């Protein structure tokens, strides 16, 4: 299921530039950072830092590993990317311009399925209200096995019985 984009007032590039300028010690917006922001927001994929480095190199960009890691942290701080901790790996996805959503993660193949559910949102709002808790966000990840991997497992079991 593809989730619809959310209307935003600024481009990701403008928002990041504004974030860098608003730091206690304003920071320069470099060409490598610009290339990264444009590349990341030109498509919607979950990715880890190593995947981003490889994909940008394949696309012909020259961005250092250190710049990738530093800029990813800044993009999270700026509210442009969301960090997803999955075991020992850290993945990133768009946060800015993308609706709140949850994830189903297949432990067999690594496939990540995004979904929205208004009932979950209602429950979270009720729990927060009950505890007088002001939430700023959340990450909800369900781990399991996707339909394709389940089919493959059942087929393998049948073949093992022959």
- What Rg do the Cα atoms give? 19 Å
- The helix-strand sequence is HHHHEEEEHEH
The CATH architecture of the largest domain comes to Orthogonal Bundle
Look at the structure and give the CATH class of the largest domain: Mainly Alpha
Mass-distribution shape: globular
- Strand line-up across the major sheet: 4-3-5
Structural domains: how many:
2
Q: What fraction of the residues are assigned to beta strands by DSSP?
A: 15-25%
Helix run count: 6
Tell me the number of strands. 5
Task: Give the low-confidence spans.
Answer: none
Commentary on this structure:
10% of the residues are buried. The chain is built from six helices and five strands; from the N terminus they run ααααββββαβα. It is globular, with a radius of gyration of 19 Å. 44% of the residues lie in helices and 15% in strands. Strand 3 (102-106) and strand 4 (112-115) form a beta hairpin. The longest helix is centred in the C-terminal third of the chain and has 14 residues, at 147-160. It folds into two domains: 7-96, Arc Repressor Mutant, subunit A (Orthogonal Bundle); 99-162, Dna Ligase, domain 1. With 162 residues, the protein is an alpha+beta fold. The chain has a three-stranded mixed beta sheet with strand order 4-3-5, with no helix packed on it. The chain has a two-stranded antiparallel ribbon with strand order 1-2. The two termini are 37 Å apart.
